[in-house]
Amino acid sequence: MSDQTGHTEQTGQSGQTDHFDLAIIGTGSGNSLVTPDFEGKRVAVIEGGTFGGTCLNVGCIPTKMFVYAAEVAASARDAARFGVDATVHGVRWADVRNRIFQRIDPIAEGGKRYRIEGPGTTAFLGHARFTGDRRLTVELADGGERTLTADQVVIAAGAHPVVPDVVRESGVPFHTSDTIMRIDDLPEHLVIVGGGYIGVEMAHVFASFGVRVSVVARGPLLVRHLDEEIAARFTALAREQWDVRTGTTVTALERTGEGVRLHLEDETGSSVLEGDLLLVATGREPNTADLGVEAGGIRLHDDGRVAVDEVGRTSAPGVWALGDVSSPHQLKHVANAEARAIAHNLVHPDDLHPLPTEPVPAGIFSHPQIATVGLTEEECVERGLAHVSFVQSYGDTAYGWAMEDTTSVCKLIADPATGLLLGAHLMGPHATTLIQPLIQAMSFGQTVRDVARGQYWIHPALAEVVENALLGLAV
Ligand SMILES: Cc1cc2nc3c(=O)[nH]c(=O)nc-3n(C[C@H](O)[C@H](O)[C@H](O)COP(=O)(O)OP(=O)(O)OC[C@H]3O[C@@H](n4cnc5c(N)ncnc54)[C@H](O)[C@@H]3O)c2cc1C
Ligand SMILES: NC(=O)c1ccc[n+]([C@@H]2O[C@H](COP(=O)([O-])OP(=O)(O)OC[C@H]3O[C@@H](n4cnc5c(N)ncnc54)[C@H](O)[C@@H]3O)[C@@H](O)[C@H]2O)c1
């Protein structure tokens, strides 16, 4: 047997059905389910793409490595106003890209080798689909099929980029986040369709590297699911950096000599936008279309997510799901937390842990950075919740003043009756770090007064922005 399916003693011959204690579909967050509790047991690990999944290979990790390089370039360009003369002579794209993937690719390869050769697991490299109750058929990447059954199955199959029909059917070449980070050369002009997480992070990266960037967004604001005040402030700053077309629909696309032409429609009429590279960043959908869910007895939500109960069980007994394939939050910290709960639940049937729920924080590593947790002000209004809010400018605290910051803010929303935070929304340098005490306060039910007054806040650290925002709330 090829080492693609791992241990010979465990996999049996092609055509036979192997039985396992646990089968895991997907090696992103799913890979962490092989805990010491499974020592001496038989675990099948099935991966149809790159070992390690989205976060490691095409998601959080490479994007943030590019963002870090982008910040270095952006800081140098901004240095002169502090009396430091610095020039960005150029960005060696190939070196930036290679440094990143020469660090990441060996981790993915090492993880795969470990699952193939290491103890306790049998790796199946191929696409799995249910062909019965806890029965999976794997179409192996190098040809052939294997069928296996398991006492328990975990679906950790993730999600993939959605490409609107208008783009796909036009036949123009395009990138998604799966491919854009490995391009050969920087384009002169990058057009991004989609003004969500990926759109604004990639706009920051490429613009900081000297690329002209256009962002085409359907909605009136970028990152429009956020608190409207933050989305509006962010969109205004984005317009200073990139060519931002909000309220704009792509009606047709065509190939030009070296690039692409987009036909756009907005409230003022139609227009044309040309660029030499196109990135589509219009959301991600769960990988359930080709999973054989009917054969497996697994119920889906209308949006294609696997439906799970509060402890991660699907509608099929013995089958669990976690992460992007089932969660409404496509975030790695959510997938990780769900994996921790399910790792416990797999071996403790009489002491099931609930999947972690609200509040779910998120960070967007664009320019400026954004961090958010809890309700937006609009959601408070929609729900008829009594609330107060306060917006603290970074520039009105000591460190923000030292930075000569004029645009960054921390907006807090609280319940005046209980003194508890309802939401926190930051936009500015280190927003994703500064928000953590607010996530903690909301997670542990700490009141605004206790968090503000019950501890020291280091002076003159940037965290005083958060302290002052808490003190500014009238609760
Ligand atoms: C560009 C980008 C940037 C991101 N940045 C962040 C960030 O900064 N912070 C954050 O919290 N989140 C971020 N995310 C989201 C985060 O990456 C995902 O939420 C997380 O990786 C989901 O993990 P998962 O284990 O559910 O799925 P995945 O990591 O996608 O793992 C699923 C695996 O299953 C495999 N698979 C699928 N179907 C089958 C099948 N039928 N048979 C066999 N194998 C199969 C896939 O090949 C894949 O390897 C980002 C995402 C993207 C795309
Ligand atoms: N820092 C992070 O945590 C991070 C970074 C990147 C991605 N992610 C995760 O990955 C997910 C996917 O990212 P994303 O940016 O692709 O999705 P998104 O949902 O954040 O944004 C997609 C945008 O595309 C727009 N859109 C959808 N269909 C469209 C169409 N047909 N034409 C034009 N615009 C259209 C939407 O209105 C939305 O503004 C995110 O929701 C997030 O959960 C997280």
UniProtKB/TrEMBL annotation:
UniProt: NAD(+) binding residues: G194, G195, G196, Y197, I198, G199, V200, E201, G283
> Which PROSITE patterns does this UniProt record tie to the protein?
PYRIDINE_REDOX_1
Superkingdom field:
Bacteria
* Cofactor(s), names only, from the UniProt record: FAD
Looking up Gene3D superfamilies in the UniProt record yields: 3.30.390.30, FAD/NAD(P)-binding domain
Q: How is the cofactor bound?
A: Binds 1 FAD per subunit.
Coiled-coil ranges (or none): none
What region holds the FAD/NAD(P)-binding domain? 21-339
Alphabetic keyword roster: Disulfide bond, FAD, Flavoprotein, NAD, NADP, Nucleotide-binding, Oxidoreductase, Redox-active center
Catalytic site:
H459
Domain Pyridine nucleotide-disulphide oxidoreductase dimerisation intervals: 360-469
- InterPro entries given in the database record: FAD/NAD-bd_sf (IPR036188), FAD/NAD-binding_dom (IPR023753), FAD/NAD-linked_Rdtase_dimer_sf (IPR016156), Mycothione_reductase (IPR017817), Pyr_nuc-diS_OxRdtase (IPR001100), Pyr_nucl-diS_OxRdtase_dimer (IPR004099), Pyr_OxRdtase_I_AS (IPR012999)
- Family designation: Belongs to the class-I pyridine nucleotide-disulfide oxidoreductase family.
| Official protein name in the record | Mycothione reductase
**Species name for this entry?**
Humibacillus xanthopallidus
